[in-house]
User: What shape does this take?
Amino acid sequence: MEQLFGDNILFLYFLGIIVIVNYEVFSKKQKIMLIYVCTYGLMLCRNMSVNFTCTLLLGGLFVYEEFLSIDSSKYKYINNLFKRVMDFAFLYLFSYKIGYIILAIIIFNAKCISTQIPLLISFLDGNVIRILVSALLVVFSCERIYNNPLEIRTYKSIERIFNKYPYYAFTKIFNDNSNVLFNKLQMVAQIEDKTYMKRQNGFSVISLNYIMTWVSEKSALIHEKQFTRRRCKSYSINHLVKRIFNIIKKLILKKQKFLRIRSRIKCFLIYKWKLICDFLSRKKRRYLRGYSTIEMQLIRTLAISKGLVTGKPKNIREAYCVIVRKIYELLYTDIFFSGLKNEVIASDIKKYRSYLLYIYLHSVSTKINGKRFNSVDKIFSSDDVANWPNELIFVATLGLTYQKITEKRVERYAQVIEDYGLDRNIILDIINNN
Assistant: This one.
């Protein structure tokens, strides 16, 4: 081998990675651990620099994860360089703990760079201490890979629910029961995410489409209140004053346009401020569920196999799971659902969003006054959402927060009850009988 490649470490290293990843006896975690240990050992034997060692490690793992992965379904959704870099960064920072290995490499080479930052690492000048600390970090990283509090499913596993309810089959159901089915799904969206049916492309709360839709809604609500207030006052003013007011209104049209823009900016800043405050406040339950779109809730349910915290975090481990889960939702919601849209060739956005809601009701868990259901469809005797009673769908949707369903909570959605002609007595009977 040495006669073939000479002293070319680059070729030997990548050849070693290919051998490891093609050894089917090992799991993915074991393969990554072997790559970590081999890289660390190569650095010891060859006395390589920090930059070169980290470049080899990151380059080799990037090629393995994004081009040689056994999860073939992944390439349907992650199909450009930017998405590949985001995917690699998230997986290896939070799932495969690459930070510990890089830190071990830096500490081992601390003597070489001590002249640059002597105050930071002067205590590591001893060879024994450096080797011991760096070796312990390698062992610790391997341990953390196996005991990761939050684990993500493969894309092939996530796709199973979509294979069970394929888009072409839903299209037939939707065409046969278009009005009935859409009204039921729209009711769920109005309770959980009012912007859902209005958005064209955005799937997460950081998407531009979601922010613009949210701001437009809030601006429209503010202007409607202002218009109602002005209209009420105008009843006590005579016709002449009305005409004068209309003339003045036309003259200051540009000013009103400026005020509308200012109102939208104000709504956007308020939205961002509330987002930060509610996320940092552990006392509020919105820390867990706040500012999640329906798509974000769906991807978390389908993708997270371990560490899905459904209540307030009780310790640092659970708080870590919540934070990493939120990062996952923000990064992968748009990646997955935009890729799925291209995969099923969904040209009708209304039908595609209805399909996601249909999958949502067959995937997410709910709790009705203490009784937990693994998915909403478990409450009903049929899989066909078009046959589900509206009142029971309403109650099941309220149960998605896992909070107790009371008459007071029901009254918060009085507008939904009125819009969809729901019977309050039936809703209260369902609540009291469960």
Summary: DSSP finds 24 helices and four strands in the chain.
